């Protein structure tokens, strides 16, 4: 038997965290009975599980890397009719993004229907590195770059130690290109870190997620992960940081 929220996540309905909320909201039934408490265990191939009145079916797990363009929502739907990340992948699997990238941020985004893996990868304790390249207005000093490394105080607390280096700068245009590697996932974190130093971000791209990168992809392109890549991600999701 397995926990109900895990079964819902593995069916590609939602991430495990969102599956838990669906249960708490009373939107899940098991064998016709509404479940509103976490911890219930079910037998997937025996019990009839419905979410919002619709029976769930287990899908084959699917894993993709998407090169998200700018002006795209990191969601499966948008009430305003804007482009969403699922528009760029042709599959019958019910994919959702692992984490998110801002509307104006481009770059690498993982997509899956494996809610269990998504929930694990998004947990902050695993310290998965994400590499960003930002074009900022102004040219930070070496001391300011060091502040990015040691930590920046934001309204929700100090950021964790990071890696940062200046890739290039343009004295005439007063702009700089900076690579920043973080392992946290706070909302708009990279942009807020630079803004706290007084260097607003003009352009932002996520180039790498752990060992995965965008090589061979253009904005809007996606590719299925290789089995060895999926295996490596699952290993990352269960290996505690040193």
UniProtKB/TrEMBL annotation:
UniProt-listed InterPro entries: PsdUridine_s_RsuA/RluB/E/F_cat, PsdUridine_synth_cat_dom_sf, PsdUridine_synth_RsuA/RluA, PsdUridine_synth_RsuA/RluB/E/F, PsdUridine_synth_RsuA/RluB_CS, RsuA_PseudoU_synthase, S4_RNA-bd, S4_RNA-bd_sf
Keyword RNA-binding: yes
GO molecular function terms attached to this record: RNA binding; rRNA pseudouridine synthase activity
PROSITE patterns on file: PSI_RSU, S4
Enzyme class: isomerase
EC number: 5.4.99.-
GO BP terms, alphabetized: enzyme-directed rRNA pseudouridine synthesis
GO cellular component terms, semicolon-separated: cytosol
UniProt keyword annotation of Iron present: no
Gene3D superfamilies the UniProt entry points to: Alpha-L RNA-binding motif, Pseudouridine synthase I, catalytic domain, N-terminal subdomain, RNA-binding S4 domain
NCBIfam families linked to this entry: pseudouridine synthase
The protein's name in its UniProt record: Pseudouridine synthase
Annotated source species: Alkalihalobacillus alcalophilus ATCC 27647 = CGMCC 1.3604
